[in-house]
Each structure stands twice: as structure tokens, then as C-alpha cells.
Amino acid sequence: MPLPQSSPVCVAKPSHYASPVKFETKYEPASTPTSSGKPDKDRRHKKKQHHSSGKKRSGTPLSLKEQIVQLIAILLTAAVVYNVTLTAIGWFEEARRPFCDDQQDPLRDNCRPCPENGICRGGELRCIPGFRRQGALCVPDKQIDRNAQNLADFVLNKVCKISGDSLCRNEDISWIPEHQIWDASEEEKMGLDAENVLLVHEKALQLVRDKLNIRIDDFGLREFRCPIALALTYQPIGCRIRKLIKANIYGIFIASFIVIFVSVYILRYLQSRRLVTRAEELYMQVCEVLEERSTGSSGETKWVVASRLRDHLLLPSERKVATLWKEVERLVQEDSRIDQYPKLVNGDSRVVWEWQGEGTLRTPNKDSKR
Predict the structure, then answer these.
(1) Does the keyword Transmembrane helix apply (predicted)?
(2) Handedness of CA 205, 208, 214, 217 (dihedral sign)
(3) Rg (CA), the chain
(4) Which residues are 60's β-sheet partners?
(5) Which residues contact 30 (CB under 8 A, 6 or more apart)?
(6) Which residues pair with 84 in a beta bridge?
(7) I want to staple 141 with a disulfide (CB 3.0 to 4.6 A). Which of 58, 87, 132, 296 is the partner?
(8) Is the distance from CB of 351 to CB of 305 less than 8 angstroms?
(9) How high is the pLDDT of residue 182?
(10) What is the rounded distance in angstroms from the CA atom of residue 121 to the CA atom of residue 102?
């Protein structure tokens, strides 16, 4: 619903002088039938206060202290920008300046002095082998040291392995010429160029000088040999075992004899124990069969042919062990309850066993349980 608007009202103001009557226009707010216009008035009143306060703040001058702080901040920012600009310009100008040759003067010829461990020709800088360029300086190349250490390990292993093989063949350790040590393939793996090969060789020799024996031959060439104590550790495993056996052959023979003797004794003892245990089991079965026959309840004879009972109780593999049934026969002979005598069976003389004991059989196992 649109809000009611105020209508202009003209009011005539009297004047004390003889002048035309002045009219002033006043706006009278229209009456609002409802209270919905109050929030609009509050918002307009707050907006006016906000604009008036903003005008007051913008028009208020800064204090002397605030002006000094702003001035200092502006000066510091300008100084920093000026210094950074000068530094960048100086760095670019310095980088564009050529390096001085041997006959040039830095002040007179406006060039940069040649750094230590560097060679300057035609305004360009080139570092000597073993150093690399870093800006306007030549610093030691750590890759050269790593390559020298790797090459020193390679030389040490190669010389000592050759010496170890000589000791394994019971030969004297020979001197190895220098040209037989260096390996071109190993140098290619390290990525060495022609300028750094000699430097890496010299550093590698300095590293192995304390571990290898080095001498100069009649032609002025270096020769290398591995010390005996160090060469022994580079012998092959098979060679070490052969030498160990050869040096202790008598002790190994005696120890082997003792081990074999003890092993045979233990095996025989275990075998005899198994045989005795099995013979006792068969003996108990024989007693049970004879005791059952003695009652006559099954209608069979009271005696049993010993050979037939043997074939009935023994396994096929046990029949080849003659000592097993002999042990059973010995136990039967020692038992007073079993009678053993020859008897003619089917026209053949056979040894028969017959139970003569009274009462039931009491086996050792049953007695122990009771």
C-alpha cells in the first residue's frame, strides 16, 4: 500500500517594510493511518546521522603525532624501494661486466677480477678441474670427491681380489702395473670427462695409499700390491673352506670318528629297545592265545605249533628279523606256565606250546594297573 505523501502549504509572512509579501513553502507531514511508517522514519533518521558523522570525521584534521607517523612510514617505504632498485641495477650491471684477463686491471678496464681457482680468457670464467662455477666464484666440486671415493673402492677391490686368488693358489703376491687397474667402463659409469679423469685418478690413489703397497718400477710406472693380511679377507669362500679343512685335517678326522661311533651306538641302542619292546608285546599275545586254548571252550587242541603261531602274529616285514622271534622264544622258555615239547603233527615233528598255568593270566601291564 503506498505511503501518504506530505502536501506543500504556502504561508505568507508579513514584512515590516513596504515590500512585496514573501511566501514560504512548508511541508506538513501527512497523517499515517497506521504505524507502518515508523520504521521508515527511523531508517531515514539513522542514515542522516551516519552521513553527518562521516562528514564530521572527514573534516576533522589529523593530530601532529599521526602526521609524523605517516610521514615516517612514507619515508621508510621510499627508502626500501630505492635500495632494492639500486641493488637490482647493481647486480645486473655487475653480471654483465666481463672478467679481467691476466693483463687487465679491474679499476682501469671496468672488469671483474678473476676468482681463485679460475681461468679467465676473453671476459669468460672457466674453473680449473676439481672446481665448478657458482656465480662469480669457483667452489670445490663435491661430485669429484664422490667419484674419487668410488674409484678408490674399485681399485682396492680389484687389486686385493687378484692378490687373494694368488694366495689361494699358494703363489706369491705379485705387483700389478697401474695400467691394468684403471677400467674405462667404470669411468664411463661415473660420467668422467677427459679433463677430470686425471684428477679423479690422483685423488683415488691418495685414498688407497694407506691401504695398498705402491712402488715405482724401473720404467717410472707405479705398481700396486695388496698386503697379505688384507688379501686373506678377499679370498673366495671355497678357497677358505679348503684351507681350513687342510689345516685341521687330523682334528676333523678324530671328531668325525667320534661322531660316527656315537651315532652308531645310539642307533643300535634304539633299535634294540624297539626290538625288546616288540618282543614283549608278542610274548603277551602268545600267552593270551595259549591261555584261551587251555580252557577248551573253542573245541581246539590245547597246544599250539610254535611256528604257526609265529607266522600268525608276526608282520611280513618282521619275519625277516630273526632276532625278534628268538627273543620271544627266550621269554617263553623262561615262563614256567608254558610247557614246550616236540610233537608229531601231520607226520612232521613240530615244537608245540601248551598252557600249563592255573587261573587267569595276569600280564605285567594288568598287574601294574591293578
Answers:
(1) yes
(2) negative
(3) 61
(4) none
(5) 4, 5, 6, 7
(6) none
(7) 132
(8) yes
(9) 76
(10) 8
Q: Three cell numbers at 326?
A: 628268538
Alpha-carbon span 337 to 342, nearest angstrom = 17
Q: Are strands 303-305 and 118-121 parallel, antiparallel or unpaired?
A: unpaired
Cell numbers for 123? 671476459
Strand partners, 353: 304, 340
* Number of C-beta neighbours around residue 60 at 10 A: 8
Q: What is the pLDDT of residue 327?
A: 92
The predicted pLDDT at position 27 comes to: 46
Which domains, ranges and CATH numbers included, belong to the chain? 95-140 (no CATH), 142-243 (no CATH), 258-369 (1.10.10)
Cα 165 from Cα 173, distance rounded (Å): 9
In this prediction, the residues of the chain whose per-residue pLDDT falls under 50 are 1-39, 52-56, 359-370
- Write out the three cell numbers for 302: 590245547
Q: Give the whole-angstrom CA distance, residue 332 versus residue 287.
A: 9
Strand duo 213-216 + 222-225: pairing: antiparallel
Dihedral sign for Cα 162, 163, 167, 171, please. Answer: positive
Three-state SS for the chain is CCCCCCEEEEEEECCCCCCCCEEEEEEECCCCCCCCCHHHHHHHHHHHHHHHHHHHHHHCCCCHHHHHHHHHHHHHHHHHHHHHHHHHHHHHHHHHCCECCCCCCHHHHCCECCCCCEEEECCEEEECCCEEEECCEEEECHHHHHHHHHHHHHHHHHHHHHHHHHHHCCCCCCCEEHHHCCCHHHHHHHCCCHHHHHHHHHHHHHHHCCCCEEEECCCCCEEEECCHHHHHCCCCHHHHHHHHHHHCHHHHHHHHHHHHHHHHHHHHHHHHHHHHHHHHHHHHHHHHHHHHHHCCCCCCCCEEEHHHHHHHHCCCCHHHCHHHHHHHHHHHHHCCCEEEEEEEECCEEEEEEEECCCCCCCCHHHHHHC
Structure-block grid coordinates of residue 253: 678326522
pLDDT at 85: 86
Residues 112/118, Cβ–Cβ less than 8 Å:
no
